[in-house]
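Ticket #4471: complex job returned nothing on first submit. Input attached below:
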Amino acid sequence: MIGRHRYAAPALLALLYFTASSARAEPYLALQLGLKCSQCHVNPTGGGLRTTFGDIFAQTVLPAQHLDSAFDNWTGQVGQYLRSGGDLRFDASLTQVPQTRSVQQFALEQTRVYLEADVIPNRLLAYVDEQVAPGGALNREAYLLYWSATHDWYVKAGQMYLPFGLRLQDQTAFILTATGINMTTPDQGVEFGWEHGRWDAQLAVSNGTAGGAVTGNGKQYSTQLAYVESRWRLGVAANRNDQSIGAKNAYGVFAGLKTGPVVWLGQAEITDDRSIAAGQGKELATLIEADWLITRGNNLKITEEFLNPNRAVPNGEQTRLSVVYELTPVQFLQIRGGVRWNDGIPQDNSQHQRLYFVEAHGFF
Amino acid sequence: MQIDRCGRWAALLMLGCAAGCAGNGEGLDQNGQPISGGGSTGGPISADFQSIQDHVFTPICSKCHIGASAPEGLQLDSAHSYNLLVGVPSAEQPNLLRVKPGDPDDSYMVHKIEGLSGIVGGRMPLGETPLPQATIDAIRQWITDGAPNAPAAAAAAAQVFAVQTTAPLDGATIEGAPARIIATFTQDLDASLVNGTTVTLERIRDTGAPVAVAVAVNAAESNPAVLLITPRKALTPGLYRATLRGTGGGALANLNALALGKDISFEFAVEPAP
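Support reply: We reran it on our side without changes. The output follows.
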């Protein structure tokens, strides 16, 4: 197997140089490459363990410099049927909130390990995504995934992240907190995926309890459909969580566009949550992001977000502007630094938070 | 080039979004709710439940801990937070209460917001800056003081004596045996009336009469508005019915001897653990 990778790596490297001008992780990378998420991630909807293609890409094209280690490129292969990977994020941050003492801290944001067992190579795999720090171990994803022979459809069963629009790294983005569908709320259920040409679709049916105990017979239905071109993509998403205390509906549209060295991402969504107090669950959230690839390994990310936490009540809107510089000096290491400005109603100081941070992100 | 023109439009759109526009907050309280809807009018956090609700649970926690898909079933909006926190065992660490009145060091919620090493999962609020020490101190002090409910909330709930919610909900199917069954009330129960004649659990069979299940019943520690039903043996897969007797002699009643007035039953199915 290792021998095969010795030959595969240079081939992939050559392929990548011809297909990509550079990149990193997150949806904008898929835009820069004109590829679907499944090209670089084992999970067809993105995030978590990288494929062999994704691993080689992350080591050879992503960083400003590739350090020769005298060994083969890392592919996470453990024996013939197992692959592993991980992510570690460590932050230093300064948070300022008006009329509140500033908070400076170091924090281990998360350490996650991934394991994939290719039970039947290219057809059936078992996958685990476990957060092992900080705190006790916490399972994020654990599922079986069965691919069709032609890889144009799959069925996934177990605990998983749900499909709904852009799967961003920043889990505090308004578009992720408004729907409640993000990488902190995996759910247990089944997902059917369809990848045909430029089309990409998923439908998941799950308990609707964010991985918690089931308290009723209601189910959550989450679906998205995307059309992926080499320089742009457009998608729609819908979610209904039908629980006995009331249903929550969410609808979104998301898009991406590549213009020279800049990738643009956008998403808009509305939610109507009838499982909480009347009139409080009608939210509107939007995001526009620009990622400018300055030079290889150097990306400037600017994100503008908008949240109307209650469409039935005027004057409560919030915004957030983020400017983040991402440097990937060598393979397996990314340094991110930036600032996030929050703005909101004058009477809530927490809506005027300013966050400065530097993050070390190790990934393999 | 067409794509580059699109890029310029995207840049203009982004600038437009950047220029707009946080709300001016007119007519809203500190949590963005209409002033007429009640709620805090501001000021620093203090060691009482209403203040903690207004400064922490509502604006921060209930962004995720709300509604049908609240993580761990823990809803922290003002309608549910108190009775799902105080005296209720943690789902992540069932040997600890989420809030143990009088004992912040043994309250799992404090462990979570302080990020102690024994917690399961991440520190709360997840992915955000930890709560300021002054806020944590206020929460600790509220727990040290016995974790009393907000007078306004207690008064509003006290207008009627009824079952507020149950876990599992009526008609629910759950995978794996639940460690306990919970019923919350709008007012404190008279704990002396909580016994094996007023609270029962039965297994329903396809044929024949239901079979009583041995349980321990008690009001939650320091929160008598929460009733805990703990099976003495793990429930096997099947259909179950819990009954709270609210009529007849010795019926479940509040501290003013006001009985429920009717028997309340809820059924749930237990399926094998996955």
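The mean pLDDT of chain B is 81. Closing as resolved unless it happens again.
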